[in-house]
Amino acid sequence: MSDEKNRATAAALLPLVGGAANVTSVTHCMTRLRLGVADRSLVRDDALKALPAVLGVVEDDTYQIVLGPGTVARVTPEFAALVDAGRDAPPAPDDPPAAADRTGPTPSALSTAEELAAQGAALKARQKARNATPVKLFLRRIADIFVPLIPALIGCGIIAGLNGLLTNFGVLPALVPALAAIASGFMSLIAVFVGHNTAKEFGGTPVLGGAVAAIIVYAGVAQVSAFGQQLSPGQGGVLGALGAALLAVQVEKACRRYVPEALDVLVTPTVTVLVSGLVTLFGLMFLAGEVSTAIGTCANWLLAHGGAAAGFLIGGLFLPLVMLGLHQALIPIHTTLIEQQGYTVLLPVLAMAGAGQVGAALAVYVRLPGNRSIRTTVRSALPAGFLGVGEPLIYGVSLPLGRPFVTACVGGAFGGGFVGLFNQLGTTAGSTAIGPSGWALFPLLKGNQPLGATLAVYAVGLLVGYAAGFLATYFFGFGKQALADLNAATDPGAAGG
């Protein structure tokens, strides 16, 4: 039954993005189906947003349909199969409703929620244009290296948490070593996967990027000295793997330009691995190791000494960082912390931004009793918001309204301040994986205290974020005139809704 539902969702999505012939690529991340589309004008945004399975759409370097965690991983293969099956078929002619969807409803037919959605889409388009700078495009490509690794990080993180529970309670002791091996195996080789994905993303041969990165985790590097120090397996971690694979791509491309075709199959891979490997051993591993150590030290110091102030600042600024596209720079930092310490102390603080967003949306719902349209949007988006999927609330409610986006940031700041304060007091809350947020983060929590204390700090932090976002939005989220206008601008027959 579940497979039929996923196939039905995929079948409903395909014609609304212009059919198989209009789809150039199909991938997914934690919550979004990411599509490359040949002709953007064939995508019917309004009809997509109206589908029950769709939580929202985001237009970035790819067209992204928010389906939520779990659902997207099941719908994507069904969608890809339909695209493969129908790619050679001629596209079906548009019917009149399709044309209406593309041109958009007339102003007289617009409800307030639709106007906000249109305004949110315009804001996203403008932000996308601002984000198309070389630095931000580079950060986006770095993020694309790590996004495919998130499912393994989550799975291994949850298994590690389960193993910790078995250890703490002394249950099934014979199973503990096996679970430890399962949970740690991926992390011990994560550098290889990073190297593989880096070469793939930047136009090199993926297996050569993985081969060079594998040097970092090879036990024999302990026999090599660099900068007067003995190297250790894993030194430099994912940052070293990233640098090594980037270098390998450049060496490989240079070889392709100058090596005769008859010798390419022998010379290019040999020179690529040899040159990149030597530079990795006698330079990159040491330098990346120093940077990785500094990242871990800085993150721990920031929350241990900055406490509430640091958490307040980090939690409050995360949503603007997302809007600017700069949050992608945090992904390698999270991964480095997980690799070093077993968890990242930054993610639970950043997750408070989502809590502030939920609190702000609840206040919008309460403050607009006369606007059934917006209240319906809030109701439909809240379940995803509680699970850490914030796009429907951000782009459908708070950002187009203006002030509620700012007050949502205030909620995130107070939640982050609470988590940061307890970090300073000695109870660290961290996450063993990246990707989930909100309530979905609970199975991945880990800290320096018993699990109950870590769960309590995070749970109360969420409540603080909800409450602060709600109160800030309730009292400061609307001007008097805006409040009156929004309560008056309701759908026909919606009075009292």
UniProtKB/TrEMBL annotation:
One of its GO terms (cellular component) is plasma membrane. Residues 97-107 have a biased composition (Low complexity). GO terms for biological process: phosphoenolpyruvate-dependent sugar phosphotransferase system. CDD domains: PTS_IIB_glc (cd00212). The active site is at 29 (phosphocysteine intermediate). InterPro entries: Glu_permease_IIB (IPR036878), PTrfase_EIIB_Cys (IPR018113), PTS_EIIC (IPR003352), PTS_EIIC_1 (IPR013013), PTS_IIB_1 (IPR001996), PTS_Sugar-Specific_Components (IPR050558). It is a multi-pass membrane protein. Residues 7-89 form the PTS EIIB type-1 domain. It comes from the Bacteria. GO terms for molecular function: kinase activity; protein-N(PI)-phosphohistidine-sugar phosphotransferase activity; protein-phosphocysteine-N-acetylmuramate phosphotransferase system transporter activity. This is PTS beta-glucoside transporter subunit EIIBCA.
